[in-house]
Design goal:
CATH class: Alpha Beta
CATH superfamily: Aldolase class I
Strand order of the largest sheet: 1-8-7-6-5-4-3-2
Largest sheet: 8 strands, parallel
CATH topology: TIM Barrel
Number of domains: 1
Radius of gyration: 16 Å
Shape: globular
Bound molecules: D-xylitol-5-phosphate, zinc ion
Structural class: alpha/beta
Distance between the termini: 20 Å
Number of strands: 8
Helix content: 25-40%
Strand content: 15-25%
CATH architecture: Alpha-Beta Barrel
Length: 222
């Protein structure tokens, strides 16, 4: 995926959708590593966002960067396949939204895409026990999924450390991504607890100078 120690993944949920291609170009040329692409269906979560056509439009527009798709949808399999065709590099889904988690993971991998499992604040880590070795990434939610701009739930820090240990024990190269309320005040603790991949929506797109903000975020974790 990348050898970089820390990945900054701006969530386009907080971008200006009327000029999404330019927003993506701007944030990537400001030092971001991945594009975090939040998909909501007004069913698994109460909000409604963007689908595979928008992912394909970004590719057609010329975006070559790593697109990290976060599915907050139910069911998972059909749209995951559509996102792979639309150019996604990695797809994460929530285990509650798939009847057969192992099957969904392997369908994504077999189609040549990287795969992650997204864990809500109240979801037990037990679900990882039997599948962690199949994953490229664990996406730990530090807010309840559905909206940008929420406050970081601090009990997640303990969970991050637990997942860090599970990943280290597995001996596999699995990224630990934290999503929700990551900003200049929280990112250092998130890194200290063991995360290596940081989603930030409002903390980046809510500022005027993306480059300044991204370098300030990086400074907090280096
Ligand atoms: C929430 C989404 C997040 C969200 C993060 O359901 O998965 O990716 O955009 O937004 P901030 O960084 O503003 O908390
Ligand atoms: Zn997300």
């Amino acid at each position: 995926m990348t050898d970089k120690k820390y990945i900054i993944a701006p969530s386009i949920l907080s971008a200006n959708f009327a000029r999404l291609g330019e927003e993506v170009e701007e944030v990537m040329s400001s030092g971001a590593d991945w594009i975090h692409f939040d998909v909501m269906d007004n069913h698994y979560v109460p909000n409604l966002t963007i689908g595979p056509m928008v992912c394909k439009s970004l590719r057609d527009y010329g975006v070559k960067d790593f697109i990290d798709v976060h599915l907050m949808i139910e069911p998972v399999d059909e749209l995951a396949a559509d996102f792979i065709k639309a150019g996604a590099d990695l797809i994460s889904f929530h285990p509650e939204a798939s009847r057969h988690v192992h099957r969904s993971i392997n369908a994504i991998k077999d189609a040549g895409c990287k795969v992650g499992l997204a864990i809500n604040p109240a979801t037990s880590l037990n679900v990882l026990d039997d599948v962690i070795e199949d994953l490229d990434l664990v996406l730990l939610m530090s807010v309840n999924p559905g909206f940008g701009g929420q406050s970081f739930i601090s009990s997640t820090l303990n969970k991050i450390s637990k997942v860090r240990k599970m990943i280290d024990d597995s001996g596999k190269e699995i990224k630990l991504e934290v999503d929700g309320g990551v900003n200049l005040n929280t990112i250092a603790d998130v890194a200290k607890a063991g995360a290596d991949t940081f989603v930030a929506g409002s903390a980046i797109f809510g500022t005027d100078n993306y480059e300044d903000t991204i370098s300030q975020l990086r400074a907090k974790i280096s």
